[in-house]
Amino acid sequence: MTATPATTYADNARPYTGGDPYADYRTAELPFTRLLDLADRELGGSVLAANDEFFAERENLLLPHRAVFDPERYGHKGKIMDGWETRRRRGEGPGQPWPAEEDHDWALVRLGTPGVIRGLVVDTAHFRGNHPQAVSVEAAAVGGSPSPEDLLAPEVVWTPLVPRTPVGGHAANGFTVDVERRFTHVRLNQYPDGGVARLRVHGEVVPDPAWLTALGSFDVLALEHGGRAEDASDRFYSPPDNTLRPGRSRTMDEGWETRRRRDRGHDWVTYALGARSQVRAVEIDTACYKGNAAGWASLTVRDGTGEWTEVLPRTRLQPDTVHRFALPDPVTATHARLDIHPDGGVSRLRLHGAPTADGLARLRERYEALRG
Fold this sequence. Notes:
Elements: E1 3-7, E2 36-37, E3 46-50, E4 74-75, E5 78-79, E6 84-85, E7 105-123, E8 134-140, H1 148-151, E9 159-166, E10 172-177, E11 183-191, E12 195-196, E13 198-205, H2 209-215, E14 218-219, E15 228-232, E16 256-257, E17 267-285, E18 296-302, E19 309-316, E20 322-341, E21 345-346, E22 348-355, H3 357-369
């Protein structure tokens, strides 16, 4: 199985005539975008190489914000675009000026964290008459830290995810992927040339159990270790998965912030740990939340389908502060729930511990099953 188009646009976009450049942007609801972007730059994603980046550099593909368009911004090579844009391909000569059918440009992307890919977005925002006619995407699983030359070696097996498919300009072209494999790299191909603003690779993290074993104790809730937010009472300002991202927040939008409550309730997030684990310590960080930090927080955990057990009672939080709590005794958990009272912002939640023997065994079983 490979990918099926979720929403693609094979027709041309209209020329830009002024006003909001996103006013005529073509997009639709793509359910898989709720999953983590495995190519996220902050998780370690990188565009390792491209065969051509004459007009706009390849690194733009993984920028976290949506593409920006400035109609008056030109450089010595022409219009400056917020994306990856290659030069126009030409044919063999005056009798055959058009590029050959197989001619294409490519970019190699290292995923920030390896995993199973569930969906892709090839976003051609602001590329209206200079987008590719079609794209295809392949994926590979290569251990270690391979160079572009290593990845392009003939012995590397590239699995097709998206067959050559027509796409439209100024649009979020989405593809649902049905390949049960763990991948570390993807290759984006565009035919015959043109520009792509952003590439998103959504899926589920599959960590390497050998690495986790070597680490010993770590944040068992971190995105890169397979943790995820399952549900939340409020996603108004930012998604709860932000609380599991690496590093500290640098701005408010890098954490989880809820709207102001005008009732007597409170907000919450439920999480799934990367594996059944023994949790020994908790960190709650309110970095960058100063006048809008959560007032109090409590934490409960659950082992499988068992009862919720309180490990941190309702505790006062300070603005812009890391709060650390060593648990009196390790607690076994597969899920966690953070409750904040009454509302506000939390930038990070860390659960420090290590997988249990059976939790690690399940990780190994899944890892081996997805190696292909």
